Amino acid sequence: MNEDRKVLALEVWHSLLGKPEMRGTAPEQYEELLRLAEDYWRQGVIDRDERRGLVIAATERYARSVDNGRHV
User: Does 72 map to a domain?
Assistant: First the structure.
């Protein structure tokens, strides 16, 4: 059951990452991605290394968005 929950949680997270226009500005999306990663880790859905990977991916996406002028 925990594996199913993990798969679903990561699908939600990656869906948000893949569609930056879904949730407001780049900073708002970045905060949401970080919040979800932290929530998943605290709930035991993902481990510390997986959380770190999500944070890195979110940070890289945010940096690209800012470089492309999407930060407003």
Answer: no
Per-residue pLDDT tens digits for 29-62: 999 999 999 999 999 999 999 999 999 999 999 9
DSSP SS3 for 68: coil
Instruction: Write down the H helix ranges in the chain.
Output: 2-18, 26-42, 48-67
Cα distance between residue 29 and residue 72, in whole Å:
12
pTM: 0.85
Phi/psi of residue 70, nearest 5 degrees: -90, 10
Residue 19 covered by a domain: yes
